[in-house]
Design goal:
Blueprint: H1 7-20, H2 35-48, H3 63-68, H4 76-79, E1 128-129, H5 131-140, E2 152-160, H6 165-175, E3 180-183, H7 193-201, E4 205-208, H8 215-218, H9 226-244, E5 252-253, H10 266-274, E6 278-279, E7 284-285, H11 299-306, E8 318-324, H12 330-345, E9 349-350, E10 352-353
Parallel strand pairs: 1-10, 2-3, 2-8, 2-9, 3-4, 5-6, 7-8
Bound molecules: zinc ion (ZN).
Length: about 350
């Protein structure tokens, strides 16, 4: 299976694509290009993307208290973002797992279709790219080595697996495209293992988005703890491998809150690099995790937010789209067909990061 677009389609659609990505000046403050605006936008993102309820965000940061905290439950990282308050799912009773999150029964399946040493099935190799390469393209733009001469979009979903994930997978399958799912390790257990396996079977990629998704633990005082991030990564990797097998490996890591949001992060980057992983942020968002005051509330609003990027001149061909498959992100699933068709119409092929 391939997502390559015919060359004629690419040529015909290039102008459309660039036009669609023209930046709206009013949105410049939310964009992520230069250092100053990155800090501004990212601080807001981290604040609103906080996975843990404020009542648990005490400053002690002790691992032991975190391990037993009531928020460490299945689906929590995805479902309790304060910016999602108006949505009814945030107040619905949480499902109670039969065992601690991240732990699987002995009979949990370990065989999968994942290619040895990869984060995706062998059939997906044709459209898979290492995280280090994609990250460089975002940072350096068209002057980067190996920068593609065709348009490539990487749809990414953070905060799964949840019950919302299969719904997004169905939309992707119906459109014949693929995405990268950044998984929260503690949400992987017997009940969600089939979802993780379906991501691979569908031709998409499974990447890591921490085990705990706990800002206080990973970034005490908003400063990245390389030691904690490394250990947290190891736990998440183990959780994925219990589902996909020991052959699973990913080059891609997405920091909860984004790399751009935290101080003192160089040592954490190195800790990830020692584990073969590279952080990857994004070039645009559908806005599904923004504060309620500016979060899009309909499909058209999400499409409009996608177009609000200002580095299109520097980086005309590579788009990494941040979205979420937390279980209260139904609007994202509703918008996904239009988002996919937007990029198809603009001549993009669909890549995965693995
Ligand atoms: Zn997240």
């Amino acid at each position: 299976m391939t997502s390559r677009q015919p060359l004629a389609t690419l040529a015909a659609c290039t102008a459309v694509g660039l036009g669609a990505l023209t930046v709206a000046p009013a949105a410049a403050h939310t964009l992520l290009h230069d250092t100053q605006s990155t800090r501004t936008a990212s601080a807001g993102y981290a604040e609103t993307h906080r996975a843990q309820p404020a009542s648990h965000s005490t400053a002690d940061g002790r691992e032991s208290s975190r391990e037993t905290a009531p928020e460490a439950r299945l689906g929590d990282a995805a479902g309790k973002q304060p910016d999602s308050g108006p949505q009814p799912e945030t107040t619905a009773p949480q499902e109670t797992p039969t065992r601690p999150p991240g732990e699987l029964s002995e009979k949990a399946p370990t065989a999968s279709g994942v290619a040895p040493g990869k984060a995706y099935a062998a059939a997906a190799e044709d459209y898979a790219y290492p995280a280090a390469e994609v990250s460089t393209w975002l940072r350096e733009g068209s002057t980067a080595a190996g920068y593609p001469d065709e348009k490539i979009v990487f749809l990414t979903f953070d905060d799964g697996p949840t019950a919302q994930t299969p719904k997004n997978l169905t939309v992707l399958r119906d459109h014949g495209v693929h995405a990268t799912f950044f998984q929260v390790g503690k949400q992987i257990d017997d009940s969600t293992a089939p979802i993780v396996q379906e991501i691979i079977a569908q031709g998409s990629a499974v990447a890591i988005h921490s085990h705990s998704h706990d800002y206080t633990r990973l970034y005490p005082g908003r400063r990245a703890s390389a030691e904690r991030i490394g250990r947290d990564y190891d736990r998440a990797l183990a959780a994925v491998r219990r589902v996909l097998g020991e052959d699973y490996a990913s080059t891609a890591y997405r920091y909860p809150g984004g790399h751009m949001s935290w101080k003192n992060i160089t040592a954490a980057d190195a800790a990830l690099a020692q584990r073969g992983a590279t952080w990857i942020d994004w070039s645009t968002v559908n806005g599904d995790a923004e504060p309620a005051s500016r979060r899009p509330h309909d499909v058209a609003g999400q499409l409009d937010r996608l177009a609000q990027r200002r580095d299109a001149e520097k980086n005309p061909n590579v788009e990494v789209v941040l979205m979420h498959d937390a279980k209260n992100k139904q609007l994202t699933t509703q918008a996904l067909p239009a988002i996919i068709e937007h990029y198809q119409d603009a001549g993009y092929r669909f890549g995965i990061i693995g």
